[in-house]
Amino acid sequence: MNTVLVIIALATLGTAAAAMSLRNLLHSVLLLTVSWAGVAAFYLWAGAEFVAFAQLLVYVGAISMAVLFAVLLTRHSRDDVAAPPASRSRACYAVVAGAAVAAVLVAAVALAPLASAPAPSPGVSVRQLGGELMGAHAASLLAVAVLLTVALIGAVVLAAGGPPENPGDVP
Amino acid sequence: MSLLATTDSSLLERAPVLLRDWLSGLLPPPARWVADALIEIVAILAVFGTLFAFLTLAERKILGRVQNRPGPNRTGWFGLLQPFADGIKMLTKEDIVPRAADPVLHFLAPVALIAFSLLTFSVIPYGRDLLAVRMDASVLFFFAAGSATELSVFMAGWSSHNKYSLFAAMRALAQLISYELPLLLSVVPVVLAAGTLSTAGVVAAQSGWTWGFIPHWHVFTPWGAAGFAIFMVSALAESNRSPFDLPEAESELIAGHLTEYSGFKYALFFMAEYFGMCALSGMAVTLFLGGWQAPIPGLGLVPSYAWFALKLLALIAGFMWVRATLPRLRIDQLTRLAWKFLVPLALVNLGTAAFWSLTFPWAGPLQLLRWALALALVVGPFLLLGRRLSAGLGARTYRYA
After folding, report:
1. Of A33, A56, A125, the CB nearest to B144
2. Of A19, B65, B98, B371, which one's alpha carbon is 20 to 30 angstroms from that of B47?
């Protein structure tokens, strides 16, 4: 059983690492999609099939499309690969922001009370999950929805760019 | 009750399962579950592969008859061997990959497409006992696997390194994403009414008859009829069928994202389109037309999978009829139909379904009121939105045509 977990983990982390290191943005996005599918496979392995399919539907189906559209609409030429940062201070800000996010995530994982002994499977049905999501956790569900909407609007704003080159062309 | 008992033990009904058990029984017990799974996979591949082959022939025959010509009639009796001739032609054709193309993605696109469209077949209940994978969330699985096809359309268009392919892929994506929304929204009322996300549960929720002859299929409720119509229109668009076949309009858009594909890779795209049509029709049968349930009681001798096949073929024939009748839409008309008409209708339909399930205890004259209110909720928005959609478009007069 653990070999399956190792294979899934290696595939997820390997594709994510490859996505970070490639120069071609489109290849990165597609590899990232495989990585997200790996996360879905992990959920499936853990017996959370509803979460796995939701991950597949949202990340592989929708988020990947949003990212692809953002990349394609903001690039100006086909061979426009990832550029180095414009200035040293900008690179520093990027590293600081990334480190802050990583610190928050690591702290959250490290401080979470995890059971060390193998716990029995809770055996949650989809109906119970739906009740929980719509009842106690409705606020977080709404927050996720707002986040996605903001990301989409941000992508549109980025893609809209400057004024049209030829004002007569605007339909 | 005795009738039910005889139907349950009907030999024809149990024949596929008995055959599978006999075949896997020849193996030692530890290998049996693998053998069972393999037999189910082979059965699905064989049935839908053959169906694909003969659907292409049927489609060409039907289109031919509609256009007052015989259709393929030279290969075999009535052209029956035409699909095999086409298959051999596709297999022996040269596979051309453009020099500038991304070879890995160019190869992966059709493979991923066919793999994901085959996955969707695993959760459709073909009969009382014929369901390959029983899951709690199988409806969700169906649409999760189906949404991955968009990725392969993008891969096909981008990896070809051809600006027309890329444009067409983006156009196809705009269409697929637009119609994914009404498709999913029209399924939500069914889940709401059945109270389950499993396909077997949805079929079970549609069993029984009112007054002994009106089946409890979802399509016979106001929200079900509207949902079925929205689902079928969206399914036409999702499977790139006419009148929404813009992604591969051969005559004016040079087959869109498939421009740089040839030989068997092209055939795989073609096959995935038919598989998608079959899977979506199968899902429509499962969600709205009672799945494998017989339309009237007392027909227990006919096996359940025969009813499923009959309904599936009827829906596919409907797809072909639509293709023979309607002209192709323009991309702006197509997205406008999705966002300004189907999505609002599907959202209103969700409210109608909620009203329907809340007023379940109403009886007697209140039942009439329930029907009237629900029908008003379906027909009213349809008329209002339809009028707004077609505002400013008068009847055309053709003088020289």
Report:
1. A56
2. B65
Domains annotated for chain A, with CATH where assigned, are 1-83 (1.20.120.1200)
Q: Which of A61, A69, A72 has its CB closest to that of B147? A: A61
Residues of B in CB contact (< 8 Å) with A are 105, 135-137, 140-141, 143-145, 147-148, 150-151, 154-155, 158, 170, 173, 177, 180, 195-197
Contact across the interface for B196 and A127, Cβ inside 8 Å? yes
Choosing among A27, A43, A49, A134, which should be mutated to test the B contact, i.e. which has the most B CBs within 10 A?
A49
Are A60 and B151 a contacting pair at CB < 8 A?
A: yes
Interface test with A, best of B119, B120, B133, B141 (most A CBs within 10 A): B141
pLDDT band with cut points at 50, 70 and 90 for residue A81 = low
pLDDT digits 0-9 by tens, B16-61: 878 887 887 777 777 788 888 888 889 889 999 899 988 988 988 8
pTM of the model: 0.84
Query: For residue B314, what pLDDT is reported?
Result: 93
B180: chain A residues, CB-CB within 8 Å: 61
